[in-house]
Amino acid sequence: MKAPARLRSLIDEGLIDTVVRQLMSGKEAMVFVVRCGDDTRCAKVYKEATQRSFRQAVDYTENRKVKNTRQARAMAKGTRFGRQAQEAAWQSAEVDALHRLAAAGVRVPAPYNFHDGVLLMELVTDVRGDAAPRLNDMGFTPDQARGHHQMLLRQVVRMLCAGIVHGDLSEFNILLGADGPVIIDLPQAVDAAGNNHAERMLLRDVVNLGDFFGRFAPELRDTRYGHEIWDLYRRGVLHPDVTLSGRFELPRGVIDVGSVVREIDDARAEEAARRLRMQ
Ligand SMILES: Nc1ncnc2c1ncn2[C@@H]1O[C@H](COP(=O)(O)OP(=O)(O)O)[C@@H](O)[C@H]1O
Ligand SMILES: [Mg+2]
Questions:
Q1: What pTM, to 2 d.p., does this model score?
Q2: Regions in the chain scoring below 50 on pLDDT
Q3: Rounded distance from Cα 185 to ligand 2 centre (Å)
Q4: What's residue 50's pLDDT?
Q5: How would you classify residue 251: left for phi > 0, otherwise alpha for psi between -120 and 50, otherwise beta?
Q6: What phi and psi, each to the nearest 5 degrees, are found at residue 111?
Q7: Residue 144 burial class via C-beta count within 10 angstroms: exposed 0-12, middle 13-18, buried 19 and up
Q8: Which atom of ligand 1 is nearest to the CA of 133?
Q9: Ligand 1 atom closest to Cα of residue 31
């Protein structure tokens, strides 16, 4: 196909030879299959900030590291320079997360390059070598569902051990590659230690996994892996091979007013973001 404008500079730089076709366009990016020498790869082109939606909400970007205080001040003020800095931080967050997760042994596409707002990465493929389907496009037997669910919980644990919470993990952001599930779409990934919403996001990610695989193996819906994992993390005893039971007694009687208020604020912010998205 004719190369889209946003990919031209990568062709000029010799990073891409040809553009094969466009994959499904997601909410916030356009994704292309490209050829680089003998390799077939995947190019993710981020949409302009105005076309994106909820994931740049404050809770995700809270406490993101920026290069310097001038940048931080500009971002807080929302000046043009600030918005540009925020945009760059958003786009490079995904490539940073991919590098960190690949190093930690999490199953993510290998990142190759990040140039001009385009992420070049490994194309996740199925057994025939075609772009892999999303979990959402597949059906599973109860045993397959249990197997994938366990495997993905281990990936969540590994991510958390590397200090990262995905923040938008669901059947839409997991591909079923030839060797099993691969996690994608990480620009909103949050720093587990530095973000006040990390716990809530981890719990949501894990609930999403249980709900999806629970369609095929209903008992998975009644598990409490998220609370169990976060509790181990909080106590400093989480490690990649930790044994999980899926059971967790929520402490009773102690009411943490601060966390209740935070929950209410979060719910309000999410509702506001949802409305924005509907516009
Ligand atoms: N590395 C990859 N290999 C194969 N397909 C991919 C890859 N990355 C993205 N895709 C496809 O592109 C779609 C959108 O990508 P995603 O990273 O989820 O962006 P969005 O923010 O738009 O949801 C995915 O649902 C998937 O079908
Ligand atoms: Mg996605």
A1: 0.87
A2: none
A3: 5
A4: 62
A5: beta
A6: -80, 135
A7: middle
A8: 27
A9: 12
